[in-house]
């Protein structure tokens, strides 16, 4: 549990809540907010203040340099009701009345007003008024799509990369997800893939253009990360391959809709950029040791050869998910449905499978079937056999493993890390990708 200092504003952003007696900002003790998962923080704030809130932004995330864990966090929240509706322990004041203060014993002087204004235009949800506008859009849109009246809205996530709420209506449950550029391509991808294999992607119920977002049903069924049945993992691999094979002819259309195209030349350039001056700035945050960087640099000529060989095998470009972790797959009655396409690109299709096969979530099903990874590889490659021979597919699969790790690392540097404001733990994922490249380099 850590201290969370709360900057609770109204929709104008001009007024906030302070303690009636001391004039201090509200403070709650709760687990650290990680990966933008704010539901528990919002509940704690609601209980303290008597007003429901939505998180807009983490203004400060003070990390202990030894443990690399948060010591305290400061959050910008928007009150759903007027500030005057808060419990009697709190009063509303103009933001200008709040002076910079010291957060002891570890932090320097903190200026909440300046922090609120810093880069506020970079995300729609970093600006006060976004929550109220989103609620208004939901109340108008739900009846229009046949969902009936909105009965509850719970915010699940708020961070640099997404703003996510669960919406309950008279006719079911939905998710509203908003993303910033360049990750705001998800709705276009889902819309196009739904024309090809609608059973494998979410249904696009409505677009929320003001928030660069969209509304989709909340599907029933467990996440793949909670499923220890090997058969579900094998089916997931096969279905994802079928989706990719079916999407080959749609790649030009997807590029026209704004999905980035990543060729072998782009991978060469991404690796060169990754191991240029950029790495010196990121190495400490990514937790990469000097000897690991040296190993990767020594392997660069070999990686270049592997890119050329993989290119000559002729696997056609298709949709590369770019974020295919087990929590991004729902196992339903109709088979797997793939979520969270905001990191996708048109590239080598085999690159998609690396997170699914190597992350911790596979541990439980792997204990039930030690040959699970082999069976998943076989299931994944089977739909590709009408395009390439078995030997070529197996060789391409082996070459793709280290190159997928490097592609993911390069993509992180180009598209994800520039968006980071306070969630610096995502740099650790970059380190994980680079260690996979070392593991599979031979």
Keywords:
Nucleoside Triphosphate Pyrophosphohydrolase, four-stranded mixed beta sheet, about 450 residues, 14 helices, Phosphorylase Kinase, domain 1, Aminoglycoside 3'-phosphotransferase, Chain: A, domain 2, five-stranded antiparallel beta sheet, alpha+beta
Describe the 3D structure.
The protein is of the alpha+beta class and 442 residues long. It has three domains: 2-121, Nucleoside Triphosphate Pyrophosphohydrolase; 130-217, Phosphorylase Kinase, domain 1; 224-439, Aminoglycoside 3'-phosphotransferase, Chain: A, domain 2 (Alpha-Beta Complex). Helices cover 38% and strands 21% of the residues. The protein contains 14 helices and 17 strands. A five-stranded antiparallel sheet has the order 9-10-11-13-12, covered by helices on one side. It has a four-stranded mixed sheet with strand order 3-1-5-4. A two-stranded antiparallel sheet has the order 2-6. The longest helix is centred in the last third of the chain and has 27 residues, at 390-416. It is globular, with a radius of gyration of 23 Å. The two termini are 44 Å apart. The mean pLDDT is 93.
